[in-house]
Each structure stands twice: as C-alpha cells, then as structure tokens.
Amino acid sequence: MLATLTERRDLDDEWLLEHKLDGERCLAWVAAGGATLRTRSDRDVTTTYPDVVAALAAVPGEVVLDGELVAVDGDAALGFERLQQRIGQGAPAPALIREVPVALWAFDVLHVDGQDMRGLELVDRQSVLAALVLPSAALRRTEAQRGNAARRFGEACGRGWEGLVAKRAASTYVAGRSRDWLKLKCLAEQELVVGGWTDPRGKREGLGALLLGYFENGALRYAGKVGTGFHVATLRDLRGRLNGLAADVSPFAETVRPLPPGTHWVRAELVAQVAFQEWTRSGRLRQPRFLGLRDDKPALDVVRERPSP
C-alpha cells in the first residue's frame, strides 16, 4: 500500500500520524525456519540485512510484516544517504554491519498464522502488530499519534525529519497507491530516472552530472541535471554502471536544451533519489542534490509526484 503526496495539514482525529522514514520499503515473511525480506520491486534482500533477519526470529508464528529498512544510530533513524552503504551488499562484512547498523521499522501486519489481516481497520492491525513486535536494536515499531496535525508536522520538520505519513484510522490495507495514506513532506524529494551523464571537469572523477527525468504517459520527460551530493566512491561506482548502460540516442522524449557539453546517453534503467528546492515553471529541478540510487522501484514506475487535491 502506497501513500499519496498531499499539501494538506488540517487533518482531524480520523488520521494517525507516523514518522516518514527515509529508507527502503520492505515486506518481511517470518516463519519457524527464518525470515525473508523483499523490496517493493520484489528483490530478495535477505542476505543483505542479516542483522534484521536475526531480530525477526523473536516474532512468534508465521507473520508477514510491512515496514521500512532504515539505517540507525542508537534510537535515531538516519537518512537514505546512510543506508546507501548497505544497499547492494549481498553478504556484508561484520565490520560494515557494525559501522552501518540497520533496523526494520515495522508499521503494519498483513498476515498472521494463515489469517489475512488486510481487511481489518488500521487501528486493529496496529494492535496486532504491537503484540507481535517487541522493539530491539534491529527491529522497531512505528508509533502513531492523533490530532494537532499542523503542529506535529512543524515539529517533525524542526527535527530534520523527511515528514509525516498520515493514515486513516479506519482504513483497510489495499495494494497500490491510496488516499487513505498521505505523505506530508518537509523537503522536496523524489525518485528520478537517469537518462544520461556528463564528463567530469578538473580533478573530479567518474562523471560531472546526471541527466534526470520521469515518465509521463510512457515517455521519459527531461527534469534537469544533478551534479552535487556525490562521494568519490559513488562517482566511481556510478561511472561503471553507466558504462554498461550506454546508448547511442537520447532516451528523453524531447530535445534536451541546453545540451550540457560532454553528454553521454544511457538506457533509462537506473533510479536515483534526489532532494531539491522546488520544481520550476518549465518543469526543471531547482538546486537538486543526489542522495543515492534506488533498486526497490522499477524505472517505468517513476512519475513526477504532484500533491493530491
């Protein structure tokens, strides 16, 4: 179940408010033989997060949980940039697990011992979840609050959170995007598809900038380029991936103007997480910053997020 972006802040007590976590969405299948973790794109990441799998052993019975894999520092949830160090590591070294600990923040339960929970109201599912999940270092449970949505949103932004997720307390769990779950974002941030890259300048390695876009009616629309937010190791890794996706023609539906010098095209397969100030009137990103690559969402599913009326 996916949330819809909104600019509403005047939500009444029918809504439950949760911390909007900045990680990798995940379903966890728990049984006596162990646990399996799968992302939104149905990618198995069980071996990537052995610390989370070990913590799930404490959950009784056969259970399916919905939650977010998040890099943590003690009790604090960190941003997506920190999680990047663990994403794609099929068998992380013990030192990396200690350096970048990850927790599954469970916020919903779909099945318990063969019983389908999705038809229950959210408040009832959360009661079941509370009985199943006892918080530990690598397994947490999202706490929901009611009322004072505007004030709580302001407090969340003041703490540096990405925002809040508002969920209708009486809602059932349905697959796909729903207006019973709403995203209240403090910062402009979304996924975008990589359609090309430019040559590096000066002493910079790997690449200069990524050319980005989003799909609209099956066509890739150009949204601008991002050249900040990269670490040296990230630049090298990206260049290797982009070389393997090289294309002779632009994947964008329109002509890219102005065309940056030293531009190279790639097949539209990589998905980047990007923070930015706002969209311009011409449909370009203002002051974008690269946060990392996502592999939990297919490129064709990336659209421009617009607040719901």
Descriptive report:
The chain has 309 residues and is α+β, with helices and mostly antiparallel strands. It folds into two domains: 2-185, DNA ligase/mRNA capping enzyme (D-amino Acid Aminotransferase, Chain A, domain 1, 2-Layer Sandwich), CATH 3.30.470.30; 188-301, Beta Barrel (OB fold (Dihydrolipoamide Acetyltransferase, E2P)). 16% of the residues lie in helices and 38% in strands. The chain contains six helices and 21 strands. It has helices spanning 50-56, 80-83, 94-99, 122-132, 149-158, 232-243; strands at residues 2-5, 15-19, 24-31, 34-39, 63-73, 76-77, 102-112, 115-116, 139-141, 145-146, 163-168, 177-185, 188-198, 210-216, 219-226, 246-247, 263-266, 271-276, 278-279, 285-286, 289-294. The strands form four sheets. Strands 3, 4, 5, 6, 7, 8 and 9 form a seven-stranded mixed sheet that branches. Strands 13, 14, 15, 16, 17, 18 and 21 form a seven-stranded antiparallel sheet that branches. A five-stranded mixed sheet has the order 1-12-11-2-10, covered by helices on one side. Strand 5 (63-73) and strand 6 form a beta hairpin. It is globular and about 60 Å long. The protein starts with a strand and ends in a 15-residue tail after the last strand. The model has no long low-confidence stretch (mean pLDDT 93).
Unreliable spans: none
Q: Treating each run of at least 4 consecutive H or I residues as one helix, how many helices? A: 6
Could you say which overall geometry the principal axes of the C-alpha atoms support?
globular
Amount of helix: 10-25%
The CATH C-level class name of the largest domain:
Alpha Beta
Average pLDDT over all residues: 93
What characterizes the major β-sheet? 7 strands, mixed
Measured distance between first and last alpha carbons: 19 Å
